[in-house]
Structures are given as structure tokens and as C-alpha cells.
Amino acid sequence: MRRDNYFKKRFGGETDYRDYLNCIDKITKSELNGLLCVIGKICDTPVSLITLLSDRKQWFLCANGTDMSGNDADASFCQYLKPEDELLEVQDATLDGRFNNLDVVTGEFHIRFYAGIPLVNNRGKVIGSVCLFDTRIKTLSDYQKTTFVTLSKQIFKILEYKRVEEYNKVVTAELQLQKEKTESVLQKLRAYFDSSPSMHILLDLEMNVLDFNKESVAIIQKYLGKQILYEKNIINYITPGYVRHFKKLFDAALRGKRIVREVLIDYVDIATWWRITLRPVLNDDKRVVAVSYSAMNIHETKQHVEEISRQNNKLQEIAIIQSHGYRKPVASILGLIDIIRRDGNSVDEEILGMLEKAAIDLDEQIRKVVKFTEHN
Fold first, then answer.
1. Which of 17, 60, 32, 20 lies closest to 166 in space, CA to CA?
2. Left, alpha or beta for 160 (phi > 0: left; psi -120 to 50: alpha)?
3. H/E element holding 145?
4. Residues 203, 208, 213, CA angle at the centre, nearest 5°?
5. What are the average pLDDT values for consecutive 10-residue runs of the chain, which has 376 residues?
6. CATH 3.30.420.40 given to domain 196-297
7. Domain spanning 3-170, CATH class
8. d(CA 200, CA 217)
9. What is the SS3 assignment for 150?
């Protein structure tokens, strides 16, 4: 296995150790240092460290007995810590092929003894260690080992608690930001919703009212004399004569259909035309979870259309009158001219020709007028 892959497989990356590095405040660091001092005294070692490890670097989060702040991962004793290790103890580094060539062993530090406990995160990566160093060859007693392991677990619990606490702060801040953004969007949607001239009501699958806009309040108060309320069944706000038809439309919307109808609804003292729309509201799984019910007052539009229809009918009547009333005399004139010619009596042909031409021209003009009337 290549060296880089070896480290990456065993140790966490930059994100892993920074999760812990960024969450340690002065109070926590003082608490960790206190535990580290206890470990050092009980185990009788001059140097004790709490480290954070990545695949390339080792940082000394807390250090007793040295001024160093860290070193390269491949120059450290802790590079050989495994996630499954409880304690790695090296009594004489000069006799261990893994360590006898390290600078801290062959150089001025003259390290001989090492004991390390891995700190393992919930992804099974070694993110750090609690370790002890001495220039003397030695062996930890069972009591020292037990104390070392127990206090190291406490150290990791503190680190993990602070990491989770910091993570929760970040998540809470992000959630608050998202909440503010969502509220802003909802306010804009509500403003648009309430500014609509149509009635909009959101219904659950049982036809109960989930939400409604301001126009719904005004329309229901005006036409029914009622106040619309949340969680009330929409049937309470529909005229008795329209309930059965509305239920059919609602059932169709529950089946995923978009329904649009123009209906004339009779109220106590007035009948009004409405364009009714029911739309199914789908979730991410394409399941109907609600129904949007909208109603637009189209009474004036309908009246205008009916007025235009009445005018068109009148124009048709005029066209019929023009066709039969005005063209009939013209046809009579042309018929008389033909009879006179057939009679054989002396007649001024020039006058008859002029009369015939005038009648034909008049007939053509009447045809044009009738055709224009029929198309307009």
C-alpha cells in the first residue's frame, strides 16, 4: 500500500480534525490540560500530549513538557495507532523497527518510551491521540494503564461533547437563517395570495379548510353572510344547490385531475357566474395531499358575452331582413324588365338596359352589405 493511501485509510482528513480543533475554547483547553497533567503524574512521564491527527500532520492541542506545536504525521509515533487499539506501548524505541530511525529517537530528544491511545471518531477514523513520552526505558503498571485509558476516554468525551455542541450551534444558525429565508418567501407568497382578486382556499383530503386568502373572507361574507374558519368543512361555505356538484368535482381532483368549470350559483337574492378551479396538490411522491379551490367572479364577463350574443342575433335578423326584404324588390324589377323585352312591343332598349344595370348594381351592393353583416 502506498504511504499516502496508508494514512488516508487509517486517519481522518482535514475536515475530521478541524471539527475538534475549532470547537476548543480556553475553558475547555484548561480542563483538558488538567486531565493531561493527572495522566502524566500517575504514569510518571515528563511529556504528555493531546494531539489531533490528519493524514499529513499532527497538531499538539494540549502539551505538557514540550514547547512544540506539532510535527509531520510520518515523523510521529502516533502514525502507527490503529482504530482498534486500546493502548500502544513502546518500552524501548531503539529496539522497535518502526521507531528506531525517527529523529526524536536518534536526535537530541532521545525518546525511548512511548505510550499512546487513539481517539477514534464515529466514522472509525483516528482523529487524534493521548500520548506519553519519556527518555527512560520503562513499562506502565496495570494501574497506570487503567488510569491512562480511563482518563483518555474522558478526554475524548469532552472533545466529542464540544464538537457536537459547536456543530449544533452551526446547524442552529443555519436553521435560523433558513427559517428567516422561508418566512421571507412565505410573506411574499402571502402578500401575493392576499392581493388576488379571486377566492383561493386550500383544502385537506376531507374537504376541511387549511388556509385561505383575504378575498375568500370578503366573498363568503358578502354572498353567504358567514365567516370562514380554519379546519371547518368547505361544505359549510357552499350553497345547498351546488353541494352535490362540488363534491363530484372535488373527488375528480383527488384522483389527480385539474377541474375548471363555469357555473351559475343561486344565492338568496342574486345569481352569480363563477369560474371554479380545483387543482390537486402533489407531494414529492406525486401523491395528492391537498386540493386548491379557486373561484373567480365572471358575472360581468358573462353578461358582456351574452350582450354580444344578443347583438349578433339582431345582426342575423337584420341580415335576413336585408336579404329577403331589400333584394325582393330588385328581383321584381329585373323580372319586369325581362317580361317587357319578351312582350315584343316597341320599347326604348337603351332605357331598359340602363334600368337593368342599375338594378343589378343595387343587387350586388345589397349582397355585400348582407355578407358584411353576417360576418360581423
1. 20
2. alpha
3. helix 142-195
4. 50
5. 46 59 76 94 96 86 92 89 92 95 92 95 88 97 96 93 86 91 85 86 95 93 93 94 94 95 88 93 92 91 70 64 59 64 61 68 67 60
6. no
7. alpha beta
8. 10
9. helix
